[in-house]
Fold each of these.
Amino acid sequence: MAEIDGATLIVRSLKQHGVEHMFGVVGFPVVPIAFAAQREGIRYLGFRNEQSASYAAGAVGYLTGRPAACLCVSGPGMIHGIAGASNAWSNAWPMILLGGANDSFQNGMGAFQEAPQVEAARPFVKYAARPDSVERVPYYVEQAVRSSIYGRPGATYLDLPNDIIVGQADEDAVEWCPPCADPPRSQADPAAIERALEVLKGSERPLVIVGKGSAYARAEDEVRQFIEATKLPFLPSPMGKGVVPDDHPLSVASARSDALKGADAILLLGARLNWILHFGKPPRFRPDVKIIQLDIHPEEIGTNIPAEVGLVGDAKAIVGQLNAALEAKPWSYASETPWRAELAEAAASNKAAVLAMEQDHSAPLGYYRVLAEIRDQVPRDALLVCEGSNTMDISRTVLPNYGARERLDAGTFGTMGVGLGFAIAAAVVHPDRKVVCVEGDSAFGFSGMEVETACRYQLPITFVIVNNNGIAGGVDDFDRDRVPPTVYTPKARYEKMIEGFGGKGYYAETSEELALALKEALAQKVPTIVNVMIDPKAARKPQKFEWLTR
Ligand code: ADP
């Protein structure tokens, strides 16, 4: 009678359902799971903190459409892993958090690192469970995988007591599940498709907003076909960038505020009307704007303002339906209208204001010069990870994306500290492409130790630290007995860290130094840090509205 242990069952089941990556930090009781992963052909990467490992797992889910697993020890490790589960919950990305737990026969006794883990995970996950026997482990793994990708994607949690991990089962008694298929791509009601097109045809000032739901759905071909057939002006959300290339002539991203404020009908393709889109309300939107809302999650339709039309289902399938309807009855928005002219004028004036700052080579440098240099040097198909407050916001306008799922940032949760985990995930998923991780110095500090992870696994990521000595701007010097809350060590030499692990570091203060440092860093086969000092008082271009609509 052959026996199989719980750790092998967990990993073999994950692998069977298409889980290819596991990130984590090992210790009691999960060590056997990490070794089983390596044995069974799941790529395991050991991180320095569960937070980053869990952020990386969410990013793999977004980039590939299949969840990755984040492996955490019991108690504190699992609690740290909730960071990534909550980020995935907020972004609607799939991932599986695996939390080791004390032996179940010690429950309630004050066992080592005993904690209410299932309860702690619950608010942030679509599914949280603890297998009740070794034999039934595959059943729970299948539920965790399927729940993470069916419907609105999200995190799931499996609580794994030591006695399940090291426990044995008779192989014949194991209940295996067939591989979990990709989620069905559900279509919208055909009447709603007709109605959506009618609303667009009746609009004088239409707009399409492309969100990361379209990117997740891999709807880039359909969305691009739709935009080109209808000639509708569009703008992407931060991570919707690249679904249609940012240099597409119909993009009105440079006139974002004017486009949102002036549109009388908006087709939302997988984007929520949350804080990122100012809730769809005045003063950022017209009070009478008609929203045509496409989302896989029926409860999302009508959130914050009633939808004129709800298109419930998968973005790839539904935009395909819109395209089919347009092929049967072609229509496009007129090429010369006052709305187009208004948007073109706003875009031109915004571009001119930004151009002047991009071309300002004087030291100390500003954000726009630094980001423009990065833009001019990175390969067209690079994956760009951007975080930090101003660094991230300005990068959205200065750093273009030409393909879907090529930008990762702080996202819906506005999580700072995600960048290094995201960059590692991107490098693992796309070993053939360059990953450039642009970080504010504050954002970098949350998980800077993960540069050791990048070095250990030979992931040639280029980290660029846009260093302003603090949170939203530090100072050059201060009284050490009264350290201001916003400052970090002035001119900190972050690039020296990576040298200790086998990477290469560069430091720049001038435009010329930056250009040279970037050129060398991007050519390296090892991970690199380019630490570029900017003016601690450097700022964004003046905005028409505060960044947070209240
Ligand atoms: P953004 O940050 O780009 O504005 P959000 O994260 O707010 O985007 O919204 C993305 C939306 O996309 C979510 O409401 C989610 O339910 C939805 N979504 C996820 N997957 C799909 C899919 N396959 N098809 C359609 N919508 C999807």
Amino acid sequence: MTAALLSSLTDGDTADRPDALSFAGRTLSREDLLGAAGAVAHRIAGAECVAVRATATAETAVAVVGGLLAGVPVVPLPPDAGPVERRHILRDSGAALVLGGEAEDGDDGVAAVPVDVRERADRPVRTADPDRPALILYTSGTTGAPKGVLIPHDAITACLDGLADVWQWTAEDTLVHGLPLFHVHGLVLGVLGALRTGCRLVHTGRPTPEAYAAAGGSLYFGVPTVWSRVVREPAAARRLAGARLLVSGSAALPAPVFRELEALTGQRPVERYGMTETLITVAARADGERVPGRVGVPLPGTRTRLAAVEDGGGIGELEVSGPTLFSGYLGRPEDTARAHTADGWFRTGDIAALDPDGTHRIVGRASIDLIKSGGYRIGAGEVENALLDHPAVAEAAVVGLPHDDLGQEIVAYVVAEGVTEQALIDFVAGRLSVHKRPRRVRFLEALPRNAMGKPQKKLLEGL
Ligand code: MCA
Ligand code: AMP
């Protein structure tokens, strides 16, 4: 059993300072955070699980830490989730309360509990129950509604300690990012990572080049879209020259962005690879080689292997095992079983290549139905179902097309009458989360289908 996830916070292992955490300019010391989180922990003690309206604010950090202190699993809710997505997450998780914000459409009687960062209470003395997850993170599959990924306390600890080792990440760092707090990247690495290492955290609210430049950090996290926006603002990019480490993840960093970052800041970024289900499993070391397209080597204790794919020629589906893995999809034993091999390795669905020196390259995804846009994972099926809920839409097929800024752009092909492109975009944005909206909608007479009647998505591009 690894040391308790928040031991450096609760045991006072690292020095406090008044500006230990800052969220869009609002600062908290670690003692402030612990006191306010203690109050939350008392309020939710005994709950089965709680949801947190995960705005990019100090309230979210307080609520999540409160859940961890109370040993109550936390379900972060995207703050812009529309009623369909919100209702699904609340019902599926069985969350008893929503911490932060007010009751909203889709809550179906789940009580909203405010979070006050000025409250102070002693933290409850409770050891995390190893059978209960720390977090339940909702993430998209190829079809249907998002699944709840059960993340154990120990998996988070193993991941953060592994990253601290490979990035030489210590309490001396100042971590800067502006990522959302309802996914692994922004929440687990970006908040819990700072709390575990004891480093200062500056959350910029939004991940804009100007905010990153102004923050004066040593360690920066971003998705590739953030880095490609940074290099388009050379003056801001140059101000990152003094940082110790620039880290990219959640999607492939385009090689030209890597090179422009190096030209403007004098430093090569490191990439790391992971998934909600596995946390971060592979990372480029701070003291290792940094090469465009290479996401690094397995974290301590993690093993990887490639499963043969047809016409693979040295590439294959990446499978992983190790201490950072999830414990299953909530209430979906069959999906959990399908996601693993007979000998217990997790099938990532990513196609990878292994270089002779042991570094990994991610070269694609096995399924066309999982889209990565701006670093967000979006299931085509969920967006298609949302579009089909619109009375004017008879058929819908959703794909991710290559996009300079977002990596992939969500494009919907529909058979529909009497509705505009913008109305359908707004319809999806209003029911699901805003980032799941198609950026473009193409109207067709019919979807191209094969003899079995299945839409042939590969034929859609260019229509
Ligand atoms: C636009 N907006 C709308 C609409 N259109 N609102 C309602 N209806 C519409 N039709 C509003 C949005 O609410 C938002 O408002 C503003 O327009 C801009 O939104 P958008 O265009 O979506 O933002 P963007 O500029 O495209 O965002 C780029 C981004 C974002 C900032 C890079 O994609 C992002 O934060 N990505 C991070 C994803 C991430 O953290 N993934 C990690 C997954 P307002 O501005 O007021 O909000 S974890 C993972 O992948 C693994 C474990 C790993 O490896 O890390
Ligand atoms: P999510 O479930 O949102 O955590 O998304 C996980 C997916 O993000 C992985 O299966 C990969 O497809 C992708 N991903 C994460 N990091 C990288 C990276 N460094 N390079 C390429 N793809 C990545």
